[in-house]
Amino acid sequence: MKNLSSWLIALFAFMFWAFRVIATVMATLGTEFVAPPTDMTMEIVLLFITFICICLIVKRSLLSALIYLIAHGMYYGIYLYQNIMSVINGTVDIDMYMNLFIALIGIAIPIAALFDVLLDKNRKAHPTDQKTDWFYKNKDFDRKLDDRADKNNYRTL
Questions:
Q1: Domain assignment of residue 148, yes or no
Q2: Does 151 reside within a domain?
């Protein structure tokens, strides 16, 4: 992760995860919060999946970014559709707008994370470190051994 955009996406994903943890804890305590979870069991499962996926997205794992998008799409996609339909029908209140906003963020961050991992040029093109390739991939720096030399490995990798 060498780009600022990659770090910002990971930071926003972690902040949204922390927001949802706080919302879930507040809902279990019975305190009113901005956007309470609609399905408590699925929210808790999603929080664990999200934490693991965010940690692996930082490591540039394409599979974790895809799992992150699918899990959030299945959870927030349903509520996004329901809230949009209620806005179209005209049966809205301020809570529905807040749930719509949370669902939009819940879908937008995983899409951005997936595109960030997919469009990362350094993920597959240069899997090794270029700072050390000049030595380890260059045969001019190999030491020549003779019969008096010890048989230790002079390269560390």
A1: no
A2: no
pTM metric for this prediction: 0.74
- The letter for the amino acid at 132 is T
Please tell me the total count of domains within the chain: 1
Give residue 116's domain range. Answer: 4-120
The DSSP line for 43-101 is HHHHHHHHHHHHHHHHTT-HHHHHHHHHHHHHHHHHHHHHHHHHHHHT---HHHHHHHH
Any domain includes 45: yes
* Region class of 39: left (phi > 0), else alpha (psi between -120 and 50), else beta: beta
Q: Tell me: the pLDDT tens digits for 51-96? A: 999 999 988 889 999 999 999 999 999 988 988 898 889 888 888 8
